Task: inverse folding
């Protein structure tokens, strides 16, 4: 009689533990699934928001006829870009490509400590401009390091074979639509805005 009672108790305990494990596993799976769905939805909404802002900003800049004259960048471009980049660290850089292959880029160093390290900026630097220009046989990439007041602290240069006019984002530029390339592989995951000017403005 005692052995039957012990056996019944053991069987009951095994069933109870099995049911508890089963329901706990289901609850954990359901909870993880709900958490993933919520996270996925928020990520999607954030990316859609960034995408919409990028389209609006790029479209706005494209209407500024005085940003570029021929193959020359207007001196006001840097401060104008800086004001836009200050409003959001989601965008770490903005650049313009010209018909002769030249490039002007402004980098927001406050977007990430990794960016600051990558371009060799000091703690006192707030912005970096990168300008590519020159004949194809003697092209230079010039880095200028600026403080918060847009005053240049120092510059450095290196040889470059970069040709903005040969890039897909430049070749597919349109006055009526914002062209988006496939994602770039960067050491840090930040968004850059590209303003190609495959026309005279």
Result:
């Amino acid at each position: 009689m005692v052995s039957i009672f012990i056996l019944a108790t053991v069987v009951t305990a095994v069933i109870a533990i099995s049911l508890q494990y089963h329901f706990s596993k289901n609850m954990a799976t359901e909870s993880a699934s709900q958490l993933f769905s919520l996270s996925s939805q928020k990520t999607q909404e954030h990316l859609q928001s960034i995408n919409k802002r990028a389209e609006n900003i790029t479209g706005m800049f494209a209407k500024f006829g005085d940003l570029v004259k021929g193959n020359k960048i207007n001196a006001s471009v840097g401060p104008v870009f800086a004001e836009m980049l200050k409003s959001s660290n989601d965008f770490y850089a903005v650049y313009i490509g010209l018909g002769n292959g030249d490039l002007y880029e402004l980098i927001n160093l406050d977007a990430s400590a990794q960016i600051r390290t990558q371009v060799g900026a000091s703690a006192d630097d707030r912005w970096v401009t990168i300008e590519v220009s020159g004949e194809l046989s003697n092209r230079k990439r010039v880095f200028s390091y600026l403080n918060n007041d847009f005053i240049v602290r120092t510059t450095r240069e290196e040889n470059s074979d970069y040709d903005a006019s040969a890039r897909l984002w430049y070749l597919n530029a349109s006055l009526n639509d914002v062209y988006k390339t496939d994602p770039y592989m960067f050491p840090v995951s930040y968004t850059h805005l590209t303003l190609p000017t495959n026309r005279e403005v």
The beta strands are 68-69, 72-73, 91-97, 103-108, 127-133, 140-146, 152-159, 191-196. The chain has four helices and eight strands. The first helix runs from residue 2 to 62.
